[in-house]
């Protein structure tokens, strides 16, 4: 496969780009804060000065950016993707955004003759490092088929979900469920502790019960040690809850549990925990006052 461009060297983008390099892909990277490219360059990546410079050099360019405003800025701003996208080039946005954002990017890219795929991912830092993401792609099927070799390296499974917007929606539904689960898990850990039970024993019991799942297994031990080193930053989880609630508004779906979970993530952000792992929402439950 040709050289792949990669825009956004955050937690996920860096792990994914290094994984592509390890599997023999040539990768050209760019990040708003250029110094965050250093590690990937040490692994053999080339550096692009701007998103436009990366797209100029590469037939396929992937974006992995914080949120809708970052995803739009990298495409539409000066020196952005749009300046160089053209017939024969594809842009793949793997950021978690809403369907409207994806559609705006799709339309602009098609107007310039390029092709577009949205492809948000399920899975966090470790699955990104290990090529174990779940890829939720939608948009131009030909482009999907062309970049499958890269998706096969990045993920354990790719879904093609049809028209642009379906990937974004699927990702938001998944993260809405995950964020709500994280809140009730935190409440359970605190309830066990306050009522005189060992939290580790609760984790052992949960792991054997019908509600066992990889997230409780992975996050539980660090949460009971108050270790919230960021794999999935809490500010991004709150963004996903907000976007999922907006999707609920559009479709008149009542989601009181997700709304409550969103409040808890907002509270955590107001406590200065936005850059920690999303499991730090646990702190909002621990710090509920008792009389
Ligand atoms: N971490 C996870 O577990 C996980 C899992 C699945 C999906 N996601 C999604 O994947 C995306 C990236 O997540 P992450 O964890 O890698 O986040 P991150 O570590 O916070 O990285 C965010 C990236 O976006 C860039 N960025 C932010 N604002 C920008 C702007 N206005 N213009 C250009 N670039 C901008 C940052 O550049 P700077 O370095 O210059 O700030 C950085 O490269 C998010 O949409 C997130 O929801 C994350």
The description of the largest β-sheet is: 9 strands, mixed
N to C succession of SSEs? EHEHEHEHEHEEHEHEHHHHHH
Secondary structure tally, helices: 13
- The chain-level structural class is alpha/beta
CATH first level of the largest domain: Alpha Beta
Bound molecules: NADP nicotinamide-adenine-dinucleotide phosphate
Task: Evaluate the radius of gyration.
Answer: 20 Å
Instruction: Provide mean pLDDT, rounded.
Output: 97
Low-confidence stretches: none
Q: Share of helix among residues?
A: 40-55%
Looking at the overall shape, the CATH architecture of the largest domain is: 3-Layer(aba) Sandwich
Proportion of residues in β-strands:
5-15%
Number of strands: 9
Overview of the molecule:
The protein is globular, with a radius of gyration of 20 Å. Strand 8, helix 7 and strand 9 form a beta-alpha-beta unit. The chain is built from 13 helices and 9 strands. The termini are far apart. The mean pLDDT is 97. Strands 1, 2, 3, 4, 5, 6, 7, 8 and 9 form a 9-stranded mixed beta sheet that branches. The chain is of the alpha/beta class. Helix 4 (68-76) packs parallel to helix 5 (99-111), helix 8 crosses helix 12 and helix 9 packs antiparallel against helix 10. It has 2 domains: 1-161, Rossmann fold (3-Layer(aba) Sandwich); 167-285, N-(1-d-carboxylethyl)-l-norvaline Dehydrogenase, domain 2, CATH 1.10.1040. NADP nicotinamide-adenine-dinucleotide phosphate binds at residues 8-13, 31-33, 36, 64-67, 69-70, 73-74, 95-96, 121, 124-125, 231-233, 236. NADP nicotinamide-adenine-dinucleotide phosphate (NAP) binds at residues 8-13, 31-33, 36, 64-67, 69-70, 73-74, 95-96, 121, 124-125, 231-233, 236.
